[in-house]
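Deliverable D2.4 — example input (structure tokens):
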């Protein structure tokens, strides 16, 4: 049986108190909300914080509010179930509601938070094993070792970004708020990620993700498609977030296509999106965009299924995501 290591536990009641507790704790202290990713990682000794700072008692981090311009602000510790069931989210971004339902299982959707999903640890076949398994083959670069077993000659870790919400939220141009000892800053959600399996976040260690902001509704459409082995529970081996802004005649003015599960950060395929601009989301530009996304997607052999099959699935999955936009799902 895998057991949690010993750790201290603190429960702040305000954001300021949480920031202060993090500042005064050992450097390896960590924030925890739902814990659906952190606690299993701790059992496998991927992460071993000496202190956990729990966020569940901070009410302001769980609220979902509509702004004057129709944009929606989601607290980082709102559960996936709360996000999916909120009328404001359903009205502004129904694709996000569908995405929440695709993450894991209903039980974990009741525990896991949207902020936790955004900050999900990168994943890899060689890393996502228990301590004894990893020790038996020698540890990997991401934890305790020196070699990336996906690409042994590589100087970097190639663990992949596999959070379902990320491709969609990057595609729609969401922003996030970060609060730390030096104050608060807001950044595009795309800027939260780095293309490195170990240092995969631009968030500073002492910063707290507090809110996610969905843009105001102004004629844009979005969709998310996921590929996984089982219909529930599994992480994506490919995720596609798609977004398009159409004029009154149904012609695409702007678009964005984002791939998840193929690299250490979400991959924005600009060439594929450009193929849609000026079109009416008909079959020909959709097929061209899918082909360009396939050309730019370069998965590695570090998740379920072979990398060749995952590569081939990019084209039909992007096509389906764009057909969802065309039918305005």
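Example output (designed residues):
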């Amino acid at each position: 049986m895998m057991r949690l290591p010993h750790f201290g536990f603190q429960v702040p009641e305000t954001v300021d108190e949480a920031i202060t507790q993090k500042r005064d704790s050992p450097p390896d202290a960590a924030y925890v909300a739902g814990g659906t990713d952190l606690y299993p990682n701790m059992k496998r000794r991927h992460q071993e914080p000496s202190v956990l700072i729990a966020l569940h008692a901070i009410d302001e981090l769980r609220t979902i509010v509509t702004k004057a311009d129709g944009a929606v602000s989601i607290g980082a510790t709102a559960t996936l179930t709360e996000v999916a069931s909120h009328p404001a989210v359903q009205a502004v971004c129904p694709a996000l509601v569908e995405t929440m339902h695709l993450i894991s299982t209903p039980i974990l959707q009741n525990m896991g938070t949207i902020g936790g999903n955004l900050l999900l640890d990168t994943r890899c076949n060689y890393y996502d094993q228990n301590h004894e398994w990893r020790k038996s083959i020698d540890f990997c670069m991401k934890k305790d070792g020196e070699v990336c077993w996906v690409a042994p000659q590589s100087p970097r870790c190639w663990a992949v970004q596999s959070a379902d919400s990320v491709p969609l939220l990057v595609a729609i141009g969401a922003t996030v708020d970060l609060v730390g000892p030096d104050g608060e800053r807001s950044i595009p959600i795309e800027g939260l990620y780095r293309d490195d399996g170990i240092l995969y976040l631009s968030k500073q260690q002492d910063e707290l993700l507090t809110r996610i902001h969905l843009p105001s509704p102004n004629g844009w459409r979005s969709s998310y498609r996921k590929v996984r082995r089982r219909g529930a529970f599994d992480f994506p081996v490919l995720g596609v977030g798609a977004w398009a802004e159409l004029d009154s005649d149904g012609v695409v003015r702007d678009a964005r296509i984002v791939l998840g599960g193929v690299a250490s950060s979400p991959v924005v395929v600009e060439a594929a999106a450009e193929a849609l601009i000026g079109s009416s989301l008909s079959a020909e530009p959709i097929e061209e965009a899918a082909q360009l996304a396939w050309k730019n997607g370069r998965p590695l052999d570090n998740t379920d299924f072979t990398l060749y099959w995952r590569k081939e699935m990019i084209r039909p999955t992007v096509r389906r995501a764009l057909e969802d936009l065309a039918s305005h799902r």
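The mean pLDDT is 96.
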